[in-house]
Structures are given as C-alpha cells and as structure tokens.
Design a protein that fits this description.
By secondary structure, this protein is α/β, with parallel strands linked by helices. It has 16 helices and 20 strands. Helices cover about 30% and strands about 25% of the residues.
Length: about 425
C-alpha cells in the first residue's frame, strides 16, 4: 500500500500501519532531549547539589531512613537511582540495613516478588526492610488531621516512624494532577483510600488537567499534604521519549520539584495547529498499556486534540484486561458511555470508579477504536469500544469516512505531551 508507514508502541514492541499521502499529518511528540551521559554521575550531581533548604544533619543522626519508590507502573529507573543513593548515603554513614524501602502502590495492586526483585538492587532486597503499601489496610495507617480543602490525611505509619524521609519519583504530565512527582510519590503512593479519594474527587475541576499545576486543586492539595506528613528530601528524574533520564533534581520537596517541573514543562508542552478529525494515540507501550486502568490516561490527552465527533484510535495491549475490579464493575453496569457519566454526576464520588468517568468522557466526544490483539473478548462490551487486532485494520475503519484533506494527528507517547493549541 502506498503512503506513509507509521509505528506505534504496543507492549514491548510496535504496531505498524500505513496512511495514504493525501491527508494532513501532524505528529505531537515531546521535545527531543539527550539522555544524561552518565546516569550515576547525574544522580550524584543532583544529590550533592540539593535545591532549597534541607536538613542533612538530620540524616547523619538518623537510625531509620524511609525511601519511597514508585511501583512497576512508572518507568523510573528505580534500581539505578537506589544504587546512586546508597553511594551517596556513605557520606552520612547510612547503610542498606537502616533503610525502610516503601513501595508507593497508591490504589494499585501490591508489587509482586518478581517486581520487587526487578525494582530494587540485590543489596537492598537482602538487607533493607521492604514495605508494600496497601491503601485499604486501616491498621497500617496513621491519621494527621486534614487539609484546608477538607481532605483527611492518612499515611502509612511506618513512614512516620522513620527519622528521615526521602521520596523518589519522576516528573511527567498527568491527566488531572497536572504533573506527577514531588510530594505525590508519598502522599498518593503511601496514602490511605480516604485521602486519595477525597483528593481525586476534585478531578472534575476545570483546573485539574494535564500540564496545569497552578490553580489545580488536586495538585495543590497534594503539595499541602506533603508539608503535613513531612518530606525531608526528594530525588526526582525527568525522562525523554525513550524513557531515559535527562535530568535529576534533589532537595526540598517543593523547591526541587519546581525546578524539575520547569524542565519537564519545556519538554512536554507542544503546540499543535488545530483539532484533528482522527487521532492515533498510545500510552507509550509497556508498562503503561498493560491494563485499561493505566492506558486510559492516554485517551484524555488525545481528547485534547480530536475534533468533536472525530475518531480516536487507541493502541494498547491490555494483556491484564481492565486492571481494577471496581472500574470494570462500574463500566459493566451501563449500556452506554452517557449512562456512565450520568451515574457519576448523580452519586457521591467513589475512588477507582472515577476511572469509568475518565474513560467514558472521551467516548462521548469521539468514536474510539481500540487496537489490541490481547484483550479478552468478553471485556469489549464492558469497555464500550470497537476493537481490532491490528493498527492497519483500525486505520482502514477510521479513514473510511474522512475527506482526502482531513487532518490526522499521531501521538506515539500521549502521556508525555501536553498539547497546546497554536495561536493563529
């Protein structure tokens, strides 16, 4: 077939297709950025040059040090980060046996034994305490009052029992927090269900959108909780499209975060030339496309670009299916996306069920075609989308009713970009 061959991330591989040359094609990608020449050196540079005021004397006196890490759904090079952190700890007499490694699962499932072995260095697995956070385990949580917005603050009590607390994470666009990173790794990663639910219920606010942190109640609430729970230091990384570390920042949980945010914004905010009749998007492959709970996020970024009544092709493997029982149950209760939205607005906010709202609000704006050869057939009716196994089949369907000069937009890593409409 004549035309332009395109490749879109799918799992750990690619899906390919061909688009005829008569269409107006625009690709929305983050700004190209070279990886740090030496990852270990970049991480140590950040650690040795902390941003803002931090209490390093407290680290020297610490007997137990909490280190909060992301779960497997985030492409943070956690093992490499911890290796550099262990090297840096030598300056303060801190050894692996003093570390309490806390896996910030948030509302995600607990990390498996295999995932823990993948995430953490062998020295840490062998000598450190490892806590797999469970947001639903009330006995593991401590309550610390509430925020100015009324969000109750519940945090894993093991975190509070440590003498020093460091949060590791990455800074990238997020569909309603604005950007990830900073306090979020601990506040949401180690938070109780009550905290996460009350915080996330503000996602319907118009300020809660990708790329927005100022005037975003979700993000501002998280940052306030960061001050309540006590974060002595953060170590965050900014990644490029290839998921390589471009820059690391360390220091005060707000000051260092703002510097990392500035870098991430410069890479992720991309202007496009107008809404498209057809948008082809992916969350960037594994691990973000393993289930609908994660892959759904790419759809909102595509929604920002597609015309009302247009078509979105979402390329996602979804080999783990929906990825959350409550999300799946909520989708399965209703016949149409409109009915899901009507139910969401008529009931009190329920965490995890909010994913059904986030998924369906795009479905009511644009026809959505899923490309997956792995999703279980019984889930397709629940998901309320068309599904084909190949990208070319999806293109054939999506292009069938388009005028020859229609605009098509490619978003090969939709989660990494914040689309901004270019002014005429």
């Amino acid at each position: 077939m004549a035309g332009l061959k395109i490749e879109m991330p799918y799992g750990k591989g690619m899906k390919t297709g061909c688009i005829p040359g008569s269409y107006k094609l625009e690709t929305i990608l983050p700004e190209k950025a070279d990886k740090a020449e030496d990852l270990g050196r970049e991480l140590l540079r950040a650690l040795n040059n902390p941003i803002g005021e931090i209490n390093l004397s407290g680290l020297r006196k610490a007997k137990k040090v909490a280190v909060v890490v992301n779960d497997i759904t985030r492409p943070v090079p956690t093992r490499a980060v911890l290796n550099s952190l262990l090297e840096w700890f030598q300056n303060f007499g801190i050894t692996a046996s003093q570390l309490v490694i806390m896996i910030g699962n948030g509302l995600h499932r607990s990390a498996t034994k295999e995932e823990v072995a993948y995430l953490l260095p062998k020295d840490v697995v062998a000598n450190s305490s490892i806590i797999n956070h469970d947001a639903y385990d009330q006995d593991s949580l401590a309550e610390l009052g509430s925020t100015s917005r009324g969000t109750p603050v519940f945090i894993n009590h093991s975190y509070l029992e440590c003498d020093y607390r460091i949060v590791i994470g990455m800074i990238e666009p997020h569909q309603f927090v604005g950007f990830t990173g900073g306090a979020k790794g601990a506040v949401i990663g180690l938070g109780g269900e009550q905290t996460i639910g009350e915080n996330h219920k503000m996602l319907i606010d118009e300020g809660a959108c990708p790329g927005n942190t100022g005037g975003n109640p979700v993000r501002e609430d998280i940052d306030e909780i960061g001050g309540i729970i006590g974060i002595d230091m953060i170590l965050n990384v900014v990644l490029n499209l290839e998921k390589e570390v471009v820059k690391a920042v360390a220091g005060h949980y707000m000051d260092a975060y703002r510097e990392g945010l500035r870098i991430s914004e410069s890479l992720s905010q991309v202007h496009f030339h107008g809404p498209a009749e057809l948008v082809i998007a992916t969350p960037g492959g594994y691990p973000k496309d393993a289930n609908l709970y994660q892959a759904q996020k790419a759809l909102y970024h595509a929604e920002m670009v597609v015309k009302e009544g247009g078509t979105v092709i979402l390329v996602a493997r979804l080999n783990e299916g929906v990825g959350d029982n409550l999300f799946e149950d909520k989708l399965g209760q209703f016949r149409s996306p409109d009915a899901v939205l009507e139910d969401f607005y008529s009931r009190p906010f329920k965490i995890r069920a909010h994913k059904a709202y986030l998924w369906c609000r795009t479905l009511v704006k644009a026809r959505t075609i899923l490309v997956s050869a792995d999703v279980r057939k019984d889930l397709l009716q629940i998901m309320k989308v068309e599904c084909v196994p190949s990208l070319q089949e999806a293109l054939d369907v999506g292009l069938s009713n388009l005028a020859p000069d229609s605009k098509i937009c490619l978003m090969p890593n939709a989660l990494s970009v914040v689309p901004r409409l270019k002014a005429n």
